[in-house]
Amino acid sequence: MVQRVDVTGAGGVRLAAWEFRETAAEADPRPGVLLLHGLMGRAFHWSGTARWLRETRRVVALDQRGHGQSGRPPGGPDVPTSFGREAFVADAEAAVEQLGLAPVTLIGHSMGALTAWQLAARRPDLVEALVICDMRASALGAASQQEWEEWFHRWPLPFPTQDAARRWFGEDDPRVERPDPGRGAFFAEVMHEAPDGWRPLFSRREMLTARETWVHDAHWEELAKVRCPTLVVRGLDGELGRAEAQEMVRVLPSGQYAEIPDAGHYLHYDQPTAWRAALEPFLDGIKAEAS
């Protein structure tokens, strides 16, 4: 079963957290895991991962601000601040503290991974272990942001059906070099039915604002401050290159490396069995050290 629990994030933003339970027990004393999706994602992107994690752990996935069923900060001149790094990290911190998850294992994908390691660097007392899934520590730069803005303009919205969205993102999108069913499934799940067709749950303008606050900066310094055991996972065809991933492991005081073949950026969708095989030994090791 999945139970929604609301969290109050930075600036009073209402956040939807989803606890994946085996039963309706009132309290779960097992080690906590917080799952953080990437930009444009949602908590339910972690459903497959949560199913096996909940066998041995208390598992919560967070809809981050402006995503899924979580609230959006008010508009106006403070929009860059309300979608900045500090807000996302503060939201994750609030989820850990308000839900009693500490010492928590953070598992983050893409932007969610950046949020996870920034929280681990700033609040080591809250974080027991960390998994970084296909997120770079180097700056991506202005050209990358411009590419994203142009890409958003190419979306053929609204889609007539959810399956049409799945096909476009998995096959017809000019950014797709070859058919990518995992990518198609990922984006189909963030579409909702509007009066004129299927549209994203999020605001593309807000996503660009959120990305603008971290895309120009490198994040090596904060990465080096992470003291807990950390697993860096990349898909062979993902956005995080092997050389950079291995350098991230070297910079981390307690880093480990895993690579998943035949997987791209959405590797937990592309290869869920291999994703589990990469994580379980690391997580089991953390559990053994804690016992």
What sequence of helices (H) and strands (E) makes up the elements? EEEHEHHEHEHHHEEHHEHEHH
Low-confidence stretches: none
Structural class: alpha/beta
What is the mean predicted local confidence, pLDDT? 95
By DSSP, the count of extended strands is 10
**Approximately how much beta-strand content do the residues carry?**
15-25%
The gross shape turns out to be: globular
Describe the protein in words.
The protein has 291 residues and is α/β, with parallel strands linked by helices. Helices cover 40% and strands 20% of the residues. The strands form two sheets. An eight-stranded mixed β-sheet has the order 1-2-4-3-5-6-9-10, sandwiched between helices. The protein has a two-stranded antiparallel ribbon with strand order 7-8. Helix 3 packs across helix 4, helix 5 runs antiparallel to helix 8 and helix 6 packs antiparallel against helix 7.
Mind sketching the topology for me?
Elements lengths: L1 E7 L5 E7 L11 E5 L10 H7 L4 E5 L16 H4 L2 H14 L5 E6 L1 H12 L4 E7 L8 H13 L7 H11 L8 H8 L2 E4 L2 E4 L3 H9 L7 H5 L5 E6 L6 H10 L3 E6 L6 H4 L1 H19 L1
Parallel strand pairs: 3-4, 3-5, 5-6, 6-9, 9-10
Antiparallel strand pairs: 1-2, 2-4, 7-8
Helix pairs in contact: 3-4, 5-8, 6-7
